[in-house]
Amino acid sequence: MILPIVAYGDPVLKRKAKEITPEYPKLDELLENMFETMYGAYGVGLAAPQIGLPIRVFLVDTEPFAEDEDLSEDERNLLKGFKKIFINATILEEEGDEWAFTEGCLSIPDVREDVFRKPQITIEYFDENFEKRTEKYEGLIARVIQHEYDHIEGVLFTDKLSSLKKRLIKGKLNNISKGKINIDYRMRFPDQKKRR
């Protein structure tokens, strides 16, 4: 089932999410709905706070990036096969020299800005079977994970922008929170109690 995505301005997006246990009710169904919601909005990642749940769950599927002609065949192949679920994740280490990449967010439609992040991460998490894993990622895969991880920490990519950039997009952000935006997927707006 496609769920409405929570728009910028909703307090759930600024709250640090809580860990869950293997007994979390209907987890399989939730994960299935999250993938369906993400694909329905043409996203490459989705975190539970973006559907209104303050829990430490996010998922990614970097396949859309695999069509980028500027990448090597090896990079495209890595991106094509990368689809994962992260539960109760903790980034243990971020390494390397920060690099800029234009990011967007399903909760902040029509806003895209360059964000600086470190290129390599080490992350500890539980998979969908609640098996603990510690893995290293780099490049675009690391970036997508960092972006979704920020969501479970109550951080949005707009929080990482300079104060000048923040001022320049303030009007757009206000319009998003009021639902004054045209989008082709379901959203829930904080300033309106209705759903689209």
UniProtKB/TrEMBL annotation:
InterPro entries named in the record: Peptide_deformylase, Peptide_deformylase_sf
Reactions listed under catalytic activity: N-terminal N-formyl-L-methionyl-[peptide] + H2O = N-terminal L-methionyl-[peptide] + formate
Ligand binding (Fe cation): 105, 147, 151
EC code(s) of this entry: 3.5.1.88
Cofactor binding, per record: Binds 1 Fe(2+) ion.
One MF annotation (Gene Ontology) recorded for this entry: metal ion binding
UniProt cross-references to Gene3D superfamilies, sorted A to Z: Peptide deformylase
Cofactor: Fe(2+)
Active site positions, chain numbering: 148
Keyword list, A-Z: Hydrolase, Iron, Metal-binding, Protein biosynthesis
Gene Ontology terms: biological process: translation
Family the UniProt entry places it in: Belongs to the polypeptide deformylase family.
HAMAP family referenced in this protein's UniProt entry, alphabetically: Pep_deformylase
NCBIfam families: pept_deformyl, PRK00150.1-3
Physiological role: Removes the formyl group from the N-terminal Met of newly synthesized proteins. Requires at least a dipeptide for an efficient rate of reaction. N-terminal L-methionine is a prerequisite for activity but the enzyme has broad specificity at other positions.
Protein name per Swiss-Prot or TrEMBL: Peptide deformylase
Gene: def
